[in-house]
Amino acid sequence: MHQSKVVDHAALLAEIGQWARELGFSQIGVSGVDLASAEPGLAAWLGQGFHGSMHYMAAHGLKRARPAELVPGTVSVITARMDYLSRGTPPGWQAIEFDRLARPQDATVSLYARGRDYHKVMRQRLQKLADRMAERLGPFGHRVFTDSAPVLEAELASRSGQGWRGKHTLVLNREAGSMFFLGEIYVDLTLPASAPESAHCGSCSACLQACPTGAIVAPHRLDARRCISYLTIEHDGPIPVELRAAMGNRIYGCDDCQLACPWNKYAQRATLPDFDTRAALAEPSLLQLWAWSEADFLRHTEGSPIRRIGHERWRRNLAVAMGNALRAGPAPAIEQALREVLPEASPLLAEHIEWALQQSA
Q: Which among 34, 139, 178, 352 counts the fewest CB atoms within 10 Å?
């Protein structure tokens, strides 16, 4: 346990907040480490198999809700959020994104994935924030996390005043909607917890109604096995046939529950250029992305979160979207492009190409 000279906690937190803003964070908060009240919900979610093939979720079990087991000595968690909408995001962006979803031959990549990989950006900057704290306080025990370990991020964020859990399970903030990343610094410092935010969803159910696959099975309960973000990113096998049509032209992630959320009219633009949209992902067509060789894929996704799914899964997702485009109307160029790849396709990709070709209107 860190034992230093007496610290003025209010002054320290004000300093940390200032350093955090200089590093591109939007807000910091502090949570305690007793998350026992979250354990029954986590256990029930795992028990129902809602984590799908994310076996690490079950393997970690309740450690996710026990910060001091993950990092012994932890007594407080500093939470941070970082807005990620590209600096060039135009007004009316939600309507623009819905319009893209209505154009079957265009490709839709989740907004968060159009720039640099947030894992890299957040982790580096959280470490810089911890380094600033060490300069001020002397050495102290800490570890930084960004979606990288068994951490109940949304629970910690909501307990520390970053916002409340929306019915889609994401954290919502009255000044920033939900278009932000979360990260944490587990520390062996006793810091006063921030006041939690009360919930402000009311009777709204826009996110439940917007989900293309019905993955939000009840308010605050998500079945990942039906979620397009899970299917296109985490799931490495065949996409269930009964869910393919609902995927539309979404090839990496899905933003529909966030696009429909009224609170996202307050979503803030990023302050960092890291999240600027890459040219290759600004207005891509399915055919343009399908034409990428594996070398092209690796080049265009250098430093991007997309790279982690690999070229085969990328093409698997594209094949489903191309099948949905064929169902929407004649598209000879798409049909030809699929047929050209079929002879050399892996068994996984071939299955999705064959399904796509069967969708031809």
A: 139
